[in-house]
């Protein structure tokens, strides 16, 4: 299915979360990892604002995905909802997940029944960060389904991709991790498959 994407709302309190009941896919990662760029590449349009200053997102931004094959005039319920969460770990903004994520983040990740998949974005160009390990550990403890994705694959040579992928899997203690590029589209099809499998 082709999707049409529309900004839904920004929430800083659980009472503000969407009430649609559609499956939700959360995008998480450090503030300079390219969350908004990836979200835009996935949907094929500029839905999320890409800031030149990492760490600007201070709310959970929700985007409704509807059937693009139907006319805009048709009132549709979302088929999917993407949630773009505030970043963590950017040196000028924060030091750790626990001390800097606002209080509304944990209820969303721990309790949100519509949340079907957490996409954990890491920078494939650099070694695994402690904040990334903390996030993966937290999601495991919470029993959340997650996928770990290495961004900025276009900036790596073929040998670097192989080497970095192996190192990240080892250091983050995950069996499944794949690389993507928002710029070239590398790996987006694989990510879409994960999203649609989780949303079923």
TrEMBL record:
Cofactor: Mg(2+)
Pfam families referenced in this protein's UniProt entry, alphabetically: MMR_HSR1
Signal sequence residues: none
InterPro entries registered for this protein in UniProt: G_ENGB_dom, GTP-bd, GTP-bd_ribosome_bio_YsxC, P-loop_NTPase
Alphabetically ordered keywords of this record: Cell cycle, Cell division, GTP-binding, Magnesium, Metal-binding, Nucleotide-binding, Septation
Record field: transmembrane: none
Domain EngB-type G as annotated: residue spans: 21-200
Keyword Cell division among record annotations: yes
HAMAP family, A to Z: GTPase_EngB (MF_00321)
Family according to the record: Belongs to the TRAFAC class TrmE-Era-EngA-EngB-Septin-like GTPase superfamily. EngB GTPase family.
Function: Necessary for normal cell division and for the maintenance of normal septation.
UniProt-recorded name of the protein: Probable GTP-binding protein EngB
Protein source organism: Acidicapsa dinghuensis
Lineage: Bacteria, Pseudomonadati, Acidobacteriota, Terriglobia, Terriglobales
């Amino acid at each position: 299915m082709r999707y049409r994407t529309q900004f839904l709302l920004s929430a800083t309190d659980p009472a503000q979360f969407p009430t649609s009941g559609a499956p939700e896919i959360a995008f998480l990662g450090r503030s300079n990892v390219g969350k908004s760029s990836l979200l835009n590449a996935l949907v094929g349009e500029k839905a999320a604002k890409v800031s030149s200053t990492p760490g600007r997102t201070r709310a959970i931004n929700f985007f409704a995905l509807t059937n693009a094959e139907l006319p805009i005039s048709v009132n549709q319920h979302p088929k999917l909802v993407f949630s773009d969460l505030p970043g963590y770990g950017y040196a000028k903004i924060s030091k750790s997940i626990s001390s800097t994520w606002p209080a509304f983040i944990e209820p969303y990740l721990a309790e949100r029944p519509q949340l079907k998949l957490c996409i954990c974005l890491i920078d494939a160009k650099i070694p695994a960060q402690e904040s990334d390990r903390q996030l993966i550990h937290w999601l495991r403890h919470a029993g959340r389904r997650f996928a770990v994705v290495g961004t900025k694959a276009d900036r790596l040579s073929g040998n670097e991709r192989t080497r970095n992928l192996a190192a990240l899997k080892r250091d983050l203690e995950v069996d499944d991790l794949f690389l993507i590029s928002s710029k070239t589209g590398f790996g987006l099809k694989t990510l879409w498959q994960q999203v649609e499998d989780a949303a079923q």
